[in-house]
Each structure stands twice: as structure tokens, then as C-alpha cells.
């Protein structure tokens, strides 16, 4: 059985139960707030929440960010099954997960992403599900970078034609002409600086704004007498 599709809580290796505490806080946010957009994911979107680019693009959009640093596909799947999307009706769910599944094959990870999409659809039948591409990682070309590219390719194929599911490439400009990634964009060659966050958030913001605007009731544009 593919471990990427088996809902599993993150092991509490440190013994402080922080992961479960964060999950319970997210569930509380669902009861108290009415977001238009929910982000579900891993370290990539957990860290960008603290950037100027996030504040510029997404703070005004009534967003909740339910991303946890070390999550893999199976951990996000467990969170969805255990209340992460209960008591909310967002117009869009942004799912970014898979880069931490370093021990699994590209095909296994893509199936894990699809399992999350399926579970989100069960919880929120009419929400748009947006899948930003997994980002390249490592200062120089490496196997994990190649695997993330393969995951993106497989996910695109698996989700093509699905109702209100859309992929979006967000990695433009991160890899330089010599194949390297700059620490000015990714401070640890995986997570983003403010400059790197701006590069990935601009195309995502454009797509989310388009979806939100398309679903706004049309204003009466009839000239007043």
C-alpha cells in the first residue's frame, strides 16, 4: 500500500505535542472565522506567511493558512479527515504538499496529492482546488529537484479535467541560467526569502483573484436616471 495515501498524524518525535496543538488551533479558527481562501500544506507556505509579499498579496483576501512545516501528503490527509476543513465554506483551497515526501517515488507522492484533492472535494463539493507546483530545491541540480518536477508532471496528468481543480506553475525565476538557486531567493535552498516569495506568490495571486472575481455577483451597471 502506498504510504502517501494513508492518513497518518505526524509522529511526535520531540514529545511536546506541538503538531496536534497546531492542528487543534486550526480547527478552532474554522469555527471562529469565515475565510474565502484556505491554504493547506507544508513548510513552503508556512514560511511565506511571514514575508512582506504575503502581507501584500494575501492578507487582504480573507485567508487562513493551515500549513505545517514538516507535513507530508499523509499528514495533511489526516488533518483533513480530522476536522481541518470542517465548519468552513471557502471559495478556494490551495494545496501545496509533497516536497517533504523525500523517501517516496514521484508516482507515490502524486497519488498522495490526488488523495488529498479527493478528500477536499468530499468535504467541500463546490470549492475550487488550486495546486501550486512543487518548487525546485537544493543549490545545485539534484535528484530531489528532478523528482519534484516529475511529481508536478504526474499531478498535472492525474488532475486534468477534474471539476474545479487547477494547477499553477509558481517556480518561474527561481533557477538561474547555470542551474543554481540563489540564497537570495531560498535562504536554505528550500524555503523562500521575501524576494523568492514574491516570485512564487505573484502568479498564484493572479489566479486566485481571477477565480474570486469570476464568482462575485455581477454589479448592476445600468446608468442611473
Automatic annotation (TrEMBL):
Transmembrane segments: none annotated. It holds the Pfam family Lipase_GDSL_2. SUPFAM superfamilies: SGNH hydrolase (SSF52266). Residues 39-196 form the SGNH hydrolase-type esterase domain. It comes from the Eukaryota. Belongs to the 'GDSL' lipolytic enzyme family. Platelet-activating factor acetylhydrolase IB beta/gamma subunits subfamily. This is Platelet-activating factor acetylhydrolase IB subunit beta homolog. It comes from Drosophila mauritiana (Fruit fly).
Amino acid at each position: 500500500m502506498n504510504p502517501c495515501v494513508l492518513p497518518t498524524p505526524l509522529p511526535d518525535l520531540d514529545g511536546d505535542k506541538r503538531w496536534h496543538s497546531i492542528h487543534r488551533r486550526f480547527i478552532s479558527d474554522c469555527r471562529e472565522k469565515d475565510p474565502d481562501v484556505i491554504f493547506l500544506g507544508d513548510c513552503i507556505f508556512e514560511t511565506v506567511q511571514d514575508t512582506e509579499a504575503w502581507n501584500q498579496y494575501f492578507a487582504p483576501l480573507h485567508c487562513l493558512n493551515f500549513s505545517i512545516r514538516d507535513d507530508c501528503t499523509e499528514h495533511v490527509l489526516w488533518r483533513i479527515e480530522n476536522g481541518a476543513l470542517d465548519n468552513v465554506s471557502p471559495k478556494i483551497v490551495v494545496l501545496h504538499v509533497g516536497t517533504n515526501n523525500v523517501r517516496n517515488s514521484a508516482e507515490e507522492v502524486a497519488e498522495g496529492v490526488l488523495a488529498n484533492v479527493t478528500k477536499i472535494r468530499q468535504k467541500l463539493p463546490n470549492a475550487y482546488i488550486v495546486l501550486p507546483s512543487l518548487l525546485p530545491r537544493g543549490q545545485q541540480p539534484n535528484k530531489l529537484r528532478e523528482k519534484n518536477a516529475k511529481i508536478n508532471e504526474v499531478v498535472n496528468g492525474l488532475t486534468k479535467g477534474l471539476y474545479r481543480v487547477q494547477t499553477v506553475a509558481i517556480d518561474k525565476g527561481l533557477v538561474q541560467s547555470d542551474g543554481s538557486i540563489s540564497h537570495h531567493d531560498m535562504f536554505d535552498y528550500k524555503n523562500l526569502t521575501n524576494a523568492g516569495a514574491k516570485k512564487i506568490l505573484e502568479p498564484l495571486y493572479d489566479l486566485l483573484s481571477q477565480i474570486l472575481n469570476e464568482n462575485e455577483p455581477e454589479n448592476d451597471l445600468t446608468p442611473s436616471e
